[in-house]
Amino acid sequence: MNIIVYLIPVALGLGLLGLGAFLWSVNTDQYDDLDGAAHRILNDDDKPL
Amino acid sequence: MTEAVLLPGDGCPSGLEPPATSLAGDLSAFVRKKGGLNTLTLSVRGAKCGGCISKIESAVMAYSGVEQARMNLSNGKLAVAWKGEGGANQIAERVANLGYGVSAFSEDASAKSAKSEERALLLSMGVAAFALANIMLLSVSVWGGHGEMGAQTRTALHAISGLIALPVLLFSGRHFFRSAFAVLRHGQANMDVPISLALTLAFGVSVWETATGGDHAYFDASVMLLFFLLIGRFLDARLRRQAHAAAHDLAALQNRSVNRVTSHGQVETVRADQVRQGDAILVAAGERAAIDMKLFDGASGVDESLVTGESLPRAVQLGETIYAGTLNLDHPIQGRALGEASDSLLADIARMLEAGEQKRARYRQIADKAVALYVPFVHTTAALALIAWLLIGASVHQAILVAVATLIITCPCALALAAPVAQVVASGRLFKRGVFLRSGDALERFAEIDHVVLDKTGTLTLGTPKLASVHGDDLALAAELARASRHPLSRAIVAAAGPGPLAAQVEETPGLGIEGWIDGQRYRLGSAVWVGLETPPESSGPSLWFASDEGAPIQFRFEDQLQSDARETLSALRQRGLSIEILSGDTEQAVKATAEDLEITEWRARVSPGGKAERLKTLAAAGKKVLMVGDGLNDAGALAIAHASMAPGGAMDVSQSASDAVYSGGLAAIKSVLNNSQRTRWVMLQNFGLAAAYNCIAVPIAVTGNVTPLIAAIAMSASSLIVTLNALRLKGGAE
Closest by alpha carbon to B153, among B166, B138, B164, B168? Predict the structure, then answer.
């Protein structure tokens, strides 16, 4: 059972990593324009020749 | 990038939104300097699809000096940053020329605080989700190892859970604790009191259990509770902020700039809120007055349809007063400001709106009623369970455990999600149909409507006159004069005649008509008096006279056109058993004609804005639940007082902020709103029913002492899921 001494901190660390990513995304306005992002990916930057 | 990307002004390429080219005044007053760059945020109306993004951004980027242009499709804001002096108006004009409505946007303090509240809730939710996932990981091992796991390992896992839960409860739970504390200090209670109590007790009991090496710790249950409650709270805050942002957006359209004439005769552009009483204001032809003023120079025809509902222009001259919202048609006029922007008629109406909103705040939503029943029920049950267990000889420890388990399992997760989820789904559905809801609880009020009051001009009718009688050659000649005028009747003639030449030396006399030369002959177009008729024949609507120096005058008749779907919508409303009434500020003749056309027996004409509000009060006093639909400034008071209200997208800004919903694309939206609101209310009632049914099952299990943390976790998540899934049903289905 000694393995949980390592596994629990590892699990917590992974969770914290996810939480950190979430905090980053909220703080950098990633959720500000949910509709626009869906359309933007379809926009071609290349202009026809 | 070249000029070739500039398509003609046809607006949104998807056709979801009709093109608009309104550009609100001079925008240079709204530019901010940031790190050597000028920044400006514009509200763009009508951008609905991906094509709009590239169309708008590339057009703005093509302007020299622009470093950054980013269009946010969700909230319709375009952020532009550029180098060099000036340019604000040119940039805005580029967007306007593409066929979008443009106005300056500046965020106010309340919008900022609403945004930070929403963000705080989102962060709390994320933190709670993290904690929930990790505690569940540990709890599942405890449940799975039941009977096999050693007491020490179990206690260690409980302790780690507790260590994760404590900071999370303090951080994510602060929204509930703070609010509960605030109301308790005033000797009242709200939903947050039982929530805080359940959270605290669940945590406290779990700490006790862990310390004494007990079997059951409820750390997972308390964090799960928090997570579900925060979802409901977040959805609610988001809906409210979106509604607020919409209202603010409308107000931003009133962030109009004003041409102020200084004492040295210089004209300067200032924001409307910078104007002081007595300032000289210049209103150019085609400009809308932003402030009430008394004229001291110039005479012109003005369109007051947004202020009074009168569909035809009025001539104004020296000494007369015009109100904010009035559109100046032909000649520049100057006036003295009668007050500051906050004292203007607009502001009066805004105050009326506030009164209306306070009235609405007193409206008791279904959720409020449910909570009022729920709180005493749950607390009494928990207390009774405690006493009963003590009476039958259980230990204090055991009795407290049962009582706390009852509080946890009956905690209002499902109740907290029942209304917000349904409202979010329904408003999203309505948004796709061109209706923008300004508040979530409006849906409940829409569902109760039994009487509909409609404004005429601009609501039932298009608000723009159309030529009724057409004379081929005369029309072509008259149009040559009419092309020089902005008068609505002239516009109607031009619309009927199409493109063509312009007469020479055209001059317009406000309130009378136009004069000009065609092929060496003088022609006049205007009122009967203007063409020399002393006693004009009776006419059943607006008309214009056209005459040359020699020939007899010819009459052009006009009619206000009905909205294309007016008849259909009204008959659908009648089928629902709703009574219909017209309340208009227009002339008796005009209103009567429309009413007869639409077979509406109840109509009132020449009603003042105050009169409209009075009528609404009378109806409310008679117990009617009235839906008011109107677009004018004169409707704003009535819109605010009505049980529920709607305004078309082209309506005056104040009227839109006074309404519960803003619609585009015709009157059929009324039907759509009423249908959806009734479905939503039905689903919300179902949800509360489900939550009640859940408690009927959960409470007996809890008071008999059979709730383990595993059962609590399953029951709580299942009930929340069921209400959410039930609400999602609103997404599909026919109209």
Answer: B138
